[in-house]
Design brief:
- The chain is 37% helix and 16% strand.
- By secondary structure, the protein is an alpha/beta fold.
- The strands form two sheets. It has a six-stranded parallel sheet with strand order 3-2-1-4-5-6, with helices on both faces. The chain has a six-stranded parallel sheet with strand order 9-8-7-10-11-12, sandwiched between helices.
- Helix 5 links the parallel strand 4 (104-109) and strand 5 (126-130).
- The termini are far apart.
């Protein structure tokens, strides 16, 4: 790792002499090559940048899922999509970044070590990011930000040094909205959606709790219960749906854009701390968000309407996170307290 960093710093070193203060950028590059939630956290800062510098072109270096999230965003002029983390793709990405020729770069969050050095080699006059999350390459930042305890949305706003509303953006097209209105007609009762999956097992509320909640929503609220998720979560969603009278599993059947258009039409959306939770916040869907090992003050709803949090303290210190086989802190969230939030 040290050898990699040394080589990358040496590659970037000849370009560091081009650094200088910049107050009126013409071409802004935003690097955010991680997942769904991280991409959505970038939208308030991107919007504020465009409103502050309306004449500037804004390009986002993004992951494939991020490109779907930012589709139809009116504050973005261009996207460079990283289709994989393969070393063979980096020359193409480097060429695309160099061709855009940014004079200001903001590093929001990246998974690939090479991204910051590639941005440093653009001769951009300013490269801003948060210290401590750049895989040992903080010295390539010209405008380093000291990390403080704040929401991830606010951290991105801090990096840009611009002011603005910190609500999330989701932009549904007319065609997507029409499709969603037609799709929801198959259900004759108000829809309560349950999202039992998560990329990380330690963030998941127990399957049995989702089943009991769905049964209560169906019997006591006369709701149509649907279970959502991606293709990998389909087996879990199907198991839960089969245990709830009249429930439907939509897992693996909707793409991100369809799911985003459908969310506002749900009466309520119950979810673990995962990407679709942030989509629900962005679409102002009534949401019950379940937290245990993660801190909602850092990654939960932020200036979000219709968002309800149920959070329990971590029961293990230190938290085992991905090594956790049975997240007891999530089990301590009761079915009845979640049901009351769905009913209200």
């Amino acid at each position: 790792m040290r050898i990699k960093n040394t080589l990358l710093k040496l590659l970037a070193k000849p370009y560091l002499r081009y650094r200088e203060a910049i107050s009126n950028p013409k071409r802004i590059l935003v690097a955010s090559t991680t997942g769904l939630g991280d991409t959505l956290w970038a939208t308030p800062a991107i919007r504020a940048l465009k409103q502050t510098h309306p004449q500037a072109l804004i390009c986002v270096l993004i992951s494939p899922i991020g490109a779907q999230v930012l589709k139809n965003n009116p504050y973005i002029d261009q996207m460079i999509v990283m289709n994989s983390s393969s070393f063979l793709q980096f020359p193409k990405i480097a060429y695309s970044i160099k061709r855009f020729d940014p004079d200001q770069v903001f590093i929001f969050h990246t998974s690939q070590r090479i991204i910051l050095p590639l941005c440093a080699m653009t001769r951009a006059k300013s490269i801003a990011g948060t210290c401590g999350i750049n895989k040992g390459l903080d010295k390539l930042l010209t405008n380093p930000c000291t990390p403080i305890y704040q929401h991830e949305i606010s951290r991105r706003m801090q990096i840009t040094s611009v002011d603005g509303n910190e609500t999330l953006d989701w932009h549904t097209t007319n065609d997507e909205a029409i499709w969603a209105q037609e799709f929801i007609k198959q259900f004759t009762r108000p829809v309560i959606a349950l999202h039992p999956g998560s990329k990380d097992r330690f963030k998941q509320w127990p399957k049995e709790h989702f089943i009991m909640l769905g049964q209560k929503c169906a019997s006591e609220l006369n709701a149509q219960v649907v279970i959502t998720g991606n293709l990998a979560e389909k087996p879990l969603a199907n198991q839960i749906a089969k245990s709830i009278p009249g429930a439907n599993s939509l897992a693996g059947e909707l793409n991100i854009r369809q799911f985003g258009a459908l969310l506002p039409l749900f009466q309520c959306f119950v979810t673990n701390d995962t990407g679709p939770m942030h989509m629900a916040f962005a679409t102002t869907t009534k949401t019950v968000a379940l937290f245990g090992p993660t801190d909602p003050n850092l990654c939960g709803p932020h200036q979000a309407k219709q968002a309800n949090i149920i959070a329990k303290k971590k029961t293990c210190s230190p938290c085992l996170r991905k090594k956790c086989c049975d997240p007891f802190c999530m089990r301590s969230i009761g079915v009845q307290e979640v049901f009351l939030q769905c009913r209200n």
